[in-house]
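Dear colleague,

Thank you for sharing your sequence with our group. We've completed the structure prediction you requested, and as agreed, I am returning the results in plain text so they can be pasted directly into your records. Please verify that the sequence below matches your submission; if there's any discrepancy, let me know and we will rerun it promptly.
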Amino acid sequence: MKTTSDPYEKTPEPSVRDYLSAVERETITLPAERRQELLADLAEHIEVTLAERPTTEVREVLAGLGDPRTIAATALAEAGTAAAPGDWEARAAAVPRGKVHPLVPLILLCLTNPLTLLSDAVPSDMAAALVSICGALVRIVGAVLLCTSVHWSRSYKTAGVLLGAVLPTVAALTWNALNGAIAAIGNDGVEMETLLLPTLALAVIPVLTSLWLWRNRRGV
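Please find the predicted structure tokens below.
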């Protein structure tokens, strides 16, 4: 029988520790002994795989195991049943892979501001309104795809939606309301030159957020 000593002792690699921590969080309802056995099995599999294939990156090994939530769901469904030795790779084959490439939601989050600038340049009010609506829909779709993606953990998704969608939207609405209030009291609103800096800032925030998410994506 496998020992159930602390699996983190064998895993100095931060990404592996994060992976095991995610599995531990998702299996919190498992009996403590079964949860420790599961974590020990995973840690041993990772350690053996890296030793046998030293050129393999840690990210590839974790991708082979699959999403922590799927592993946790399998373990919870099999609670009380001993796992067959070495069947983690077989389970990983059943892990649902992301159907949407991780670049898709990131690109959509970055497209909204260019569409907003385009709407300002369109002479027709109707066309400008349609372009603005399209920009809003693009941002919403990007946020939804990000939230449903298997390539990021819940914390990364939350930060991505807040920084890449919510913050730019709130800032843009606040700026438009302020400009409208200025125009309502008799001024002509804010000049285009004044708008340039906040517009660029709103465009840069989603881009930087997308780059950060891309660097921290899961390789599933």
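Summary note from our side: The radius of gyration is 24 Å.

Kind regards,
the structure core
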